[in-house]
TrEMBL record:
Residues 1-22 form the signal peptide. InterPro entries: Egh16-like. It comes from the Eukaryota. Pfam families: Egh16-like (PF11327). It comes from Dactylellina haptotyla (strain CBS 200.50) (Nematode-trapping fungus). The keyword Signal applies. Keywords: Signal. This is Uncharacterized protein.
């Protein structure tokens, strides 16, 4: 598929994404029908800082499609029990759960007294009591005329902000033509060059992409018909995208309007990325082996919930990154650590 983006839209996206990071967060969305309209995934929090990687506040609006949203560790009532994938709906997030516990009559008085570990064990590592309110949020976007617009045989471009190693690609997407987030169609075919760097085999782990923004350009089927109605907005569809992370999957739901049109598509704009996936080259970095354990830990922020196998994948990938690029990643992680500490001191 060939895709074009005008300069104004590209500049607008850079304006937003330069300020925008969870394991991954969908921050901006545009469609080929009207590139001046900049939407976002449902549950996106525009007020969040995006220069750190701790769980709070930097992963507050990361959408997760497994329940509980955080894999249960020892001490959690759900430890040893399976997580369940949400096949319908738009998942949940730490921010969604915080809002519930901070306002619900049964929890609002005790919640402010809980520290991060207690919230993890009792709230995030327990079956979610609140889900992203996709219907309400879509109505709000429609009322504000912030629903992206695309055409059949066109595209939606999502900015994916990768926060930790497991927020990488690839992402898979499907559409509910009724806009109801419950009757999903087949998984769409997304060309590799339009996806976020990463692999299914590695469970969407790519250490080289942490704290970076990536374009996810999803083709819209030529025969798509959208029938959802939200206020004055007609022809609304819902798209849901997710990656293959073991501690996720992470992703988001994107409502959009399908416009009539059949214009020619052009090549997508070139995007320079630094998501080094690593190679098996003899020139791999000479950093001491045990130092990589610390690098993996730092890349996960304050709550390392990667399972042992996923941690091994992340460590192996870090070890394959050339020394000069690894040095830049470590510098970025050091800055993130400073921001993490700064925010922790303000809480």
């Amino acid at each position: 598929m060939q895709i074009s983006m005008n300069t104004a839209a590209a500049a607008a996206i850079l304006l937003f994404t330069s300020q925008v990071s969870g394991h991954a967060a969908f921050t901006t969305v545009i469609g080929d029908a009207d590139q001046k309209i900049i939407g976002n995934a449902l549950g996106y929090n525009a007020t969040l800082p995006r220069d750190g990687n701790n769980q709070m506040p930097f992963q507050d609006d990361t959408t997760v499609f497994n329940n509980p949203i955080v894999p249960a560790t020892e001490g959690s009532l759900w430890h040893g029990k399976p997580r369940m994938w949400w096949s319908s709906g738009c998942g949940s997030s730490i921010g969604t759960l915080n809002k519930f516990y901070e306002t619900d009559r049964a929890y609002k008085y005790s919640t402010p007294k809980m520290n991060a570990d207690q919230r993890n064990k009792q709230y995030y590592q327990y079956p979610a009591r609140a889900l992203i309110e996709w219907r309400k949020l879509t109505y709000e976007m429609a009322k504000g005329k912030r629903l992206p617009k695309a055409t059949a045989n066109g595209w939606l471009r999502i900015t994916v902000h990768q926060i930790t190693p497991s927020g990488a690609g690839p992402y898979k997407c499907r559409i509910d033509s009724m806009g109801s987030a419950s009757i999903w169609g087949e998984w769409l075919k997304i060309p590799d060059e339009n996806n976020v760097p990463g692999s299914v085999e590695d469970k969407s782990i790519n250490p080289g992409g942490i704290l970076q923004d990536f374009p996810l350009t999803v083709p819209i089927p030529a025969d798509l018909k959208c029938t959802g109605v939200y206020g004055e907005a007609r022809n609304v569809c819902m798209m849901r995208c997710e990656n293959f992370a073991a501690d996720g999957p992470f992703g988001g739901c994107v409502p959009f309007i399908l416009e009539e049109g059949d214009k020619a598509k052009s090549e997508p704009p070139a995007v320079e990325l630094n998501a080094n996936l690593g190679t098996d080259s003899e020139k791999a970095t000479k950093v001491k082996r045990d130092e990589f354990d610390d690098i993996v830990k730092d890349s996960m922020g304050d709550f390392d919930n990667l399972d042992p196998q996923a941690s091994s994948i992340a460590k192996a990938k870090f070890q394959k990154i050339p020394a000069d690029k690894l040095a830049k990643i470590k510098e970025k992680l050091e800055k993130a650590k400073q921001e993490n500490e700064k925010k922790a001191g303000q809480s």
